[in-house]
Amino acid sequence: MLSQRRLAIRTQIALQSDANIAMELPAKVVADPNASGLVQAVMGGKVDAGRTGLPFAGKAVRKGDVLATVVFKADPLALASQRAQLAELQGARDIAQKRVDRLKGLEGSVPRKEIESAQSELASLTARERAIGGSLSSKESVVAPVSGVIARSNVVIGQVVETKDVLFEITDPAKVMVEATTADSTLAASISNASVKGSPDVRLELVGIGRSLREGVLPITFKASTSGSAKELPLAIGQPITVIANAKQSIKGYVLPAESITRNPANEPVVWIKSGAERYIPQPVQYQALDATRIVVTKGLGDENRVVTQGASLIAQIR
């Protein structure tokens, strides 16, 4: 008995009951499209840091924060053409300015509309000169589209990027979704609740099922949130997980903690049944997962069997 206490062995009487049918679905963690975003370069150029430097992975940012600047670098031939055009406009503006000054000196002897026409031409040439001059040294401020955390940073100072290159990925770690897959188009209608295998603090809420096959399967989307005292989701974007989906239909069996199941040398699932003082017998069983912490044994157990519910893995190591 002393050794049992040291190993923290706990048992319970197996009682048959009704339990919801559960299915294990392969899944992965994806970003919530309403709480994540990509930061891309609208134009190509050279990356420069903002006032607070380039953000790194894990840094918290707010919507509208300047993450970096992209200094536009034109093609040499295009740059030469722009400079030539700018020189022409500067010359034309100087001529237009002198014409306006001359006409103003003759005000009263020349029609008013002629002076206004010259002023309009001067304003047009000045605006064109300013636009082309600004394009020669234009900068793009790269801002955060949403509030969250930098999930990935793909740039360093001085890096040359092209149009549409992804510079940063931003996500809110408290708002993620889980995308499971199934070949059964009717499965979503039969799901009553779902959980993440191995993460009992994660609660899943069914959002819907896609109606377009992707590689032969349909995506089922869940919204993930924390339950209990957990403050952060123990999930990362792209992480492969297993979703345990409980159906509305029930099945008869013996509900036990998931840690009651161990494997014998033949790799069969077994539970340990107490047959006497410090005597335990491995019993092969068939079972299904109910959620992240419970299973239901459908074959191999009988009523009044005393099953080890805690410390089964330690008993399995005793030879």
From TrEMBL:
User: What InterPro entries does this protein map onto?
Assistant: MFP_Cation_Efflux
UniProt keywords (A-Z) are: Coiled coil, Transport
Highest rank taxon of the organism? Bacteria
Under which name does UniProt file this protein? HlyD family secretion protein
Gene Ontology cellular-component terms listed: cell envelope
Organism the protein comes from: Giesbergeria anulus
Instruction: Give a yes or no for keyword Coiled coil in this entry.
Output: yes
**Which ranges of the sequence are coiled-coil?**
79-106
